[in-house]
Amino acid sequence: MAFEGLSERLQQTIQKIKGKGKVTEQDVKEMTREVRLALLEADVNFKVVKDFIKRIKERAVGQEVMESLTPGQQVIKVVKEELTALMGGEQSKIAVADRPPTVIMMVGLQGAGKTTTTGKLANLLRKKYNRNPMLVAADVYRPAAINQLQTLGKQLNMPVFSLGTEANPVDIAAKAVEEAKREHNDYVIVDTAGRLHVDNDLMDELQQIKASVNPDEIFLVVDAMTGQDAVNVAESFNDQLDLTGVVLTKLDGDTRGGAALSIKAVTDKPIKFAGMGEKLDELEDFHPERMASRILG
Ligand code: GDP
């Protein structure tokens, strides 16, 4: 699982301060220094770390006294609350359109896990929310992507809308929405093309699809293993498309994960789901508070 290194270091730091009946400014200083190093080592963006530490210092020093907690525990509470806020605070729910279908566009770089996540999300929507999704193959540049989605559709026993590789992705998306209305599919999840790098053609096409189907959600699928690059990718997709959320994939890997933690702070878009493995049922709602508890132990 990602964040293991971070988790271990933060837990060590916390252990030192936990039992303290009195927390001096020096204690806070030492603790924040260690937290800072742990975050940087986990590859959290340095600007994000700087703000984070500043907030903890302010809060931990001029702290409100709570009788039920020791001063040490109070400092830990501050760290936990700030870590939760860093990852987005409240859990962010998936959109539901006033009039179905709810349209979701999946965007991201090739290999991030977009197609797999399209299938996983459809599966989650059906299992957890009792929805009836349609998948849309709008990545016409890689025939393998269409086949991959069709295979997922078969495994899930869900419809996959495709017009092959000759059609225009903007048309495909628009026609899929019409088809979903006729067939009473309440969610339409559009798997769009990715590229190895962010480029203008990719963004143009995504903007055209967005303009054509007016999606309720635009999810950027980000590979948590890609480090600081993930932050840059998220920034450019967000600038161009005004994302509504992020799906982090491959959090089951032994990545440092910190870059992923920076995405919310940098884009101000919530992390909505986390991919925890290759299987179709390995996508979870992302709960900032639970994740913070998991990290802090
Ligand atoms: P796309 O090019 O963005 O559509 O990426 P794919 O959906 O084809 O996924 C690329 C690879 O990442 C595949 O081998 C997936 O099985 C794998 N993958 C996707 N999500 C996860 C995840 O959460 N955990 C792990 N371990 N692998 C994943």
Automatic annotation (TrEMBL):
What is this protein identified as? Answer: Signal recognition particle protein
Query: Keywords assigned by UniProt?
Result: Cytoplasm, GTP-binding, Hydrolase, Nucleotide-binding, Ribonucleoprotein, RNA-binding, Signal recognition particle
Q: Which residues form the SRP54-type proteins GTP-binding domain?
A: 270-283
State the Gene Ontology BP annotations: SRP-dependent cotranslational protein targeting to membrane
Which reaction equation describes what this protein catalyses? GTP + H2O = GDP + phosphate + H(+)
Oligomeric state and interaction partners are given as: Part of the signal recognition particle protein translocation system, which is composed of SRP and FtsY.
Q: Which domain of life is it from?
A: Bacteria
- Localisation: Cytoplasm
GO cellular component, as recorded: signal recognition particle
- EC no. given is 3.6.5.4
Q: Tell me, in a sentence or two, what this protein's role is.
A: Involved in targeting and insertion of nascent membrane proteins into the cytoplasmic membrane. Binds to the hydrophobic signal sequence of the ribosome-nascent chain (RNC) as it emerges from the ribosomes. The SRP-RNC complex is then targeted to the cytoplasmic membrane where it interacts with the SRP receptor FtsY.
Q: What is its main location?
A: cytoplasm
Q: Does the keyword Cytoplasm apply?
A: yes
* Note on domains (UniProt): Composed of three domains: the N-terminal N domain, which is responsible for interactions with the ribosome, the central G domain, which binds GTP, and the C-terminal M domain, which binds the RNA and the signal sequence of the RNC.
- Tell me which family the UniProt entry assigns to this protein: Belongs to the GTP-binding SRP family. SRP54 subfamily.
Keyword hit for Electron transport: no
Where is GTP annotated to bind?
A: 108-115, 191-195, 249-252
Molecular-function annotations in GO: 7S RNA binding; GTP binding; GTPase activity
